[in-house]
Specification:
The chain folds into three domains: 31 residues, no CATH class; 50 residues; 165 residues, Ribonuclease H-like superfamily/Ribonuclease H (Nucleotidyltransferase, domain 5). It is 37% helix and 13% strand. The strands form two sheets. The protein has a five-stranded mixed β-sheet with strand order 3-2-1-4-5, sandwiched between helices. Strands 6-7 form a two-stranded antiparallel sheet. Strand 4, helix 9 and strand 5 form a beta-alpha-beta unit. Helix 2 crosses helix 3. The protein starts with a helix and ends in a 21-residue tail after the last helix.
Length: 305
């Protein structure tokens, strides 16, 4: 304001520069309108600028999309920044729409549970909505059985078109072979295919399946499903980082292969252990899993195609 006021009085640029304490080139820039007060031109090019429109569109489409999922998508597009750089840009530019429903959600209390090596494998179903019709006919629903080693957090999963008992046993056989062995205990929530709701006992076929593998099956107490927090967290990761980015024009076999590759990449994530920071793969080497039975458990699986 002072610069423009002095210029209107007919004072020269050199005199304005002496009175305001600025360089003459700066005075000329303000008078020509090349610069605005309080707005600085960045010293280096904006590395995030080319990705702003893409990130904005993805967050408008899904306000709950994880930033780490966005990072997975931006890497092939040429983004070289870190996860912290991405979250800072999203925060500084206010790219994520506000969600009123999430603003009032409080965290439920939880506790850290010690899981000795080779002690427990946790299983849980994850529903996959809007699955491709060519491999989820006719309901367009598919399901993911996730199995997690409680000590290391290493997980594997199998896609199934149904959550009935035969598909549960077939999916468990696949997951156990991917994990590479057996722990002493299998933990589930109170699903009807595992636990008879009338008696509270294991169903006959699932009891035979557990006996065939020499494993003790344990169901969580009522309203205590979060006791199996390791597999629930891995469910969240599979839903947010794998399922949300899976192409629609993919077959069930290709989806299973993509899922196994994604789960294997998760073995390199950092984990905290009593000896310090390590990785899930290094903790997996301490599990001391027992080998699988030489013969598979017989089960008849029926599917509509």
């Amino acid at each position: 304001m002072d610069i423009h006021a002095l210029h209107r009085q007919g004072i020269t640029i050199s005199e304005i520069a002496r009175r305001t304490g600025h360089d003459r080139k700066t005075i000329r820039s303000y008078l020509r309108g090349d610069r605005e007060p309080g707005v600085r031109k960045p010293a280096v090019p904006d590395a995030f600028g080319p990705f702003t429109d893409y990130v904005t569109a993805r967050l408008i489409e899904d306000p709950h999309l994880w930033a780490v999922t966005l990072l997975d998508e931006l890497r092939p597009l040429g983004f070289e920044g870190s996860y912290q750089s991405l979250t800072r840009q999203i925060r500084d530019r206010s790219l994520r729409p506000a969600c009123q429903a999430c603003a009032h959600v409080t965290k439920r209390p939880n506790a850290v549970i010690d899981h000795p090596p080779g002690e427990e494998t946790q299983f849980d179903w994850l529903e996959l909505p809007d699955a491709p019709e060519q491999w989820a006919y006719p309901t367009k629903r598919a399901f993911l059985l996730v199995g997690s080693l409680a000590h290391s957090g290493v997980w594997r999963a199998a896609i199934a078109p149904s959550m009935d008992l035969p598909h549960l046993l077939a999916a468990m056989t696949t997951v156990l072979s991917l994990l590479g062995g057996l722990t002493r205990v299998w933990r589930f929530d109170r699903m009807r295919t595992v636990l008879d709701p009338a008696t509270g006992d294991l169903t006959a076929m699932f009891s035979a399946f557990a006996k065939h593998h020499g494993v003790q099956a344990v169901a969580c107490r009522p309203r205590s499903g979060n006791r199996k927090g390791v597999v629930e967290k891995n469910n969240h990761t599979a839903a947010q980082r794998w399922w949300r980015t899976l192409p629609d024009e993919i077959t069930a076999e290709q989806a299973q292969t993509s899922l196994e590759q994604f789960a294997a990449r998760q073995d390199g994530r950092r984990r905290e252990s009593p000896t310090g920071t390590t990785t899930a793969a290094q903790m997996r080497a301490q599990e001391r899993l027992r080998p699988l039975p030489p013969m598979a458990f017989p089960v008849v699986v029926t599917e509509h195609r």
